[in-house]
Specification:
Layout lengths: L5 H4 L2 H20 L3 H14 L3 E2 H7 L8 E6 L3 E6 L9 E7 L4 E12 L2 E9 L12 E8 L5 E6 L26 H4 L7 E4 L19 H14 L9 E7 L4 E3 L5 E4 L2 H16 L6 E7 L16 H13 L4 H9 L2 E4 L3 E2 L21 E4 L3 E2 L10 H13 L4 E4 L8 E2 L3 H5 L4 E6 L1 E2 L7 E4 H15 L5
Parallel strand pairs: 1-2, 4-13, 4-14, 14-20, 15-21, 16-18
Antiparallel strand pairs: 2-3, 3-13, 5-6, 5-10, 6-9, 7-8, 7-10, 11-12, 12-22, 16-20, 17-19
Length: about 475
């Protein structure tokens, strides 16, 4: 089957709506380069739409009713939202679930050092990256430093035009004969991804009659002075910091026709924003609508803020309790009877690297929302494999809403593979399938998507949330 072309199907009105939606998405990306920033932006958005914290709802002890809008935040890195429907929770929910973390470099706990009059911050890369892609590009520093007294200092350095940026150096081509013979995985080693943060020494002029004091590491000392003067940060404060190194600069439209978006973090903020936007459009749902936006997917969904934690299950228990007549069985029925789209990206077919794709089972830019029946690797290892009945239900749901979609696998059978949060949610017995946007350059500092696909995926999510269930 030939994939349909989204651009050719749009009316003038839809083309305009597509551009407006993608402008909102670009603004979101510019203001949300880390999971903490994502949660901050999202909370501001949902509270303007009338959502209240679940903890406040519990304190009020007024129960749960149709039309209630609640959210819960987990450690400032994950968030879950609910629009309560007319049916009981035990009958299940329609769930959209995406992740808001992206590949990057994290600053280590003891990072600052000087070598040959250059000051560095030592880093540890996060998620699956091609390390050589992160050298010689402008980098920004985002995150928080929490001092011993509990004071939190927020940093975002490298985004404004007047900000300095940082970078990882690379070997000049004139001396790179040995380096060029290495395998790509070894061209740049993980321990070589240290960012350069200074070169100017601190000069302390001696007072009259006093002996001049010389710093052991004067460039490092200058960096510490700037951190102290501008942010109130001492070297030991790095011990309780979460600082992420990400590509600097704003999102850009790509192509002469401006049909694409080139940006950091499409995986998976393109699906997270589409999920959130679609969710906020829901006005009067029959089945409770849920949107989960979580951390740590890029490293296996582990930890207290990842999908494998009990945070989501505990929140469902709170909702069931608010609904009245709490029981563990009701919680389990709610989860088992739910339907979910694991909102995550797929590898877009790239003609430059066609050998790793099986073309007739690939996703294409400009061909709409992508369903991936299973992920995993090779023999479907580690995957969630959606059943035929659920896919048929989704086909009808999207066809009835005139949403253009495609069904894809992640490359050739033996080429590699990957995973999402789908298999984690499937353990509850709910129907789950991956559904999202086709991406070029996935996991690179700058990834590319088609504007038509981002908008069409959002439309698909809307149709799903408003469906009555299987």
């Amino acid at each position: 089957m030939e994939p349909k072309k989204v651009w050719e199907s749009y009316s003038a009105k839809q083309l305009k709506e597509c551009e407006v939606y993608n402008k909102d998405y670009r603004d979101f990306l510019d203001n949300a380069k880390t999971e903490r920033e994502c949660v901050d932006v999202i909370v501001n958005m949902v509270e303007k739409s009338g959502y209240v914290e679940l903890s406040e709802k519990i304190k009020a002890n007024k129960g749960l009713k149709k039309g209630d809008k609640v959210y819960a935040v987990n450690m400032n890195k994950s968030i879950v939202l609910f629009n309560i429907g007319s049916t009981k929770l035990a009958e299940g929910m329609n769930i959209l679930g995406a992740h808001i973390d992206s590949p990057r470099m994290d600053v280590k706990a003891n990072p600052l050092y000087e070598d040959s009059s250059i000051a560095y911050l030592d880093t540890h890369y996060y998620g699956g990256v091609k390390k050589y892609q992160w050298v010689t590009i402008p980098l920004a520093l985002h995150g928080v430093v929490v001092k011993k007294d509990g004071t939190t200092v927020e940093l975002a350095v490298g985004e404004d035009e007047d900000d300095p940026v940082f970078f990882v150096s690379d070997l000049l081509i004139h001396l790179a004969q040995e380096q060029m013979e290495k395998k790509a995985a070894k061209v740049i080693e993980g321990e070589a991804l240290d960012i350069i943060v200074g070169n100017k020494p601190l000069v302390v002029k001696a007072k009259k009659g006093e002996e001049e004091k010389k710093e052991k590491d004067p460039v490092k000392a200058m960096v510490l002075k700037i951190l102290g003067d501008d942010y109130g940060i001492e070297e030991e404060d790095f011990l309780s910091a979460e600082l992420e190194v990400v590509p600097a600069g704003k999102v850009r439209e790509a192509g002469f026709d401006r049909s694409m978006i080139l940006a950091y973090g499409h995986d998976d903020r393109v699906c997270a924003f589409a999920s959130l936007f679609a969710f906020l459009q829901c006005k009067d749902v029959e089945r409770t609508a849920c949107c989960i936006l979580v951390d740590k997917e890029e490293i296996g969904s582990v930890g207290a803020t990842g999908m494998t934690s009990l945070f989501f299950e505990n929140v469902i228990a709170d909702l069931v309790n608010l609904e009245g007549k709490y029981s563990d069985l009701t919680v389990r029925k709610c989860l088992a009877n739910s339907c979910m789209l694991s909102s995550d990206v797929n590898a877009g077919f790239d003609p430059s690297y066609a050998s790793v794709f099986e073309k007739k089972n690939s996703s294409f830019l400009g061909a709409g929302m992508v369903f991936c029946k299973f992920t995993g690797a090779r023999g479907k290892s580690g995957s969630n494999d959606a059943n035929a009945e659920y896919i048929a239900y989704l086909r009808k749901t999207l066809d009835d809403a005139n949403v253009i979609y495609q069904i894809s696998e992640l490359g050739k059978v033996d080429a590699g593979g990957g995973g999402t949060i789908a298999y984690i949610m499937a353990k509850y017995g709910m129907n789950v399938i991956d559904a999202g946007v086709a991406v070029l350059n996935m996991h690179a500092p700058f990834e590319a998507v088609s504007k038509s696909d981002t908008y069409e995926t959002m439309r698909g999510y809307m149709a799903f949330l408003n469906a009555k269930g299987m």
